[in-house]
Amino acid sequence: MRPASQRVVITGMGAISALGHDAPSHWNALREGRSGIAPLEHPRAADLRVRVAAQVRNFDPATHFDERLLAVLDRVSQFAILAAREAVATSGWEPSSTPSPRIAVIIGTGTGGETSRDEESRKLYADRAARIHPFSIVRAMLSAPTSHVAVANHATGPVFAVSSACASSNHALAQAALLIRAGIVDVAIAGGAEACLSYSVLKAWEAMRVLADDTCRPFCQQRRGLVLGEGAGMFVLESLAHAEARGALPLAELAGSGMSSDAGDLVAPSADGAAAAMRAALADAGLAPDTVDHINAHGTGTAVNDVTETRAIRDVFAAHADRIAVTSTKSMHGHALGAAGALELVATLGAIRDGSVPPTANFLDHDEACDLDVVTGTARPMAIRAALSNSFAFGGLNAVLALAAMRG
């Protein structure tokens, strides 16, 4: 076992999603099997074939930010800041108590300030405007959410963005944990944020023909594709020594991470690549495969992905795969791209903490090609020693987090 200075624990979390504007709302909806997927609300919905999405609704930025700050905030940065505020508050950690160079901020996002980029492009090309918003660059850049969270918490240590499509959050969290383990920082604010439901992005996904027109049904025989979502999940990570010194009670240990690249097709997933990331996460965490009780699957609800992930899980866990409770919470919060892993980590932490695996919603009939123990219907009460949270992205980029219940 690593010394306390190299063990990484999660002491706070925050979230905003289609299921609610804070982590408890997000987790409670998941545990109850309530889906946030609903008919798409968009000014140009009539011009889209996209019918459903998991949108953050009833959100008024003016209630959270003053007018001057809003001028430089894209929706993605708004989500990141709110989730980070909650994570810091629930951790009980005061940023001023830690030397600022010992604080890191690492946030994953797939598209960055897409809403701002789309709006300013419309003005430029459709309306033929002579000029666009002077803060267009700082709104749209991928690192904007990271920079804003760093400013809010006076973090002068390593601060950067990670972008690896749907694996962005897990890659960001893995990098944060490695910085703590290496002794470079004591605390990291890390996670992911996405606000990707712009007209151009919706049209681009529409063209790929992988979106469901009804709802998201991962691992189900009647699955018809993924459903896009948005939101943010943020976490406070600390060395166990730092957490113990201030009397913090960790939610769980981020025991390890595994990363791999398929180095093959940009769209078609590889079971070998996914399996390599899961094996690497187990090895890094020092976990035997038969100690894993739960997997929060990537589970997009597409025909190919769910079968490929099933094969990868069986390759890694062999007969033990039959005893692992598998779920895909994308069936409720949608596929939030770069924020997906962060929203799923809230679910994985909740499952460990409360001893309850949330169901895969919208499930109808089992698919023989997805022959896993998929939790359906209602949440399953069970003690969880260790769990994996999988993220497998376009481009063949894989990142898996290994979580463990707190041990001595």
Polypeptide structure, described:
- The protein is of the alpha/beta class and 408 residues long.
- It folds into 2 domains: 8-245, Thiolase/Chalcone synthase (Peroxisomal Thiolase, Chain A, domain 1), CATH 3.40.47; 256-404, Peroxisomal Thiolase, Chain A, domain 1.
- It is built from 13 helices and 15 strands.
- The strands form 3 sheets. The chain has an 11-stranded mixed β-sheet, with helices on both faces. Strands 2-3 form a two-stranded antiparallel ribbon. A two-stranded antiparallel sheet has the order 11-13.
- The longest helix is centred in the first third of the chain and has 17 residues, at 75-91.
- It is globular, with a radius of gyration of 20 Å.
What coarse outline follows from CA principal-axis ratios?
globular
* Succession of helices and strands: EHEEHHEHHHEHEHEHEHEHEHHEEEEE
Which regions have little confidence, pLDDT < 50, spanning 5+ residues?
none
The CATH architecture category of the largest domain equals 3-Layer(aba) Sandwich
Domain tally: 2
Terminal-residue CA separation? 10 Å
Q: Rg, please? A: 20 Å
Indicate the CATH class of the largest domain: Alpha Beta
Query: The biggest beta sheet, please?
Result: 11 strands, mixed
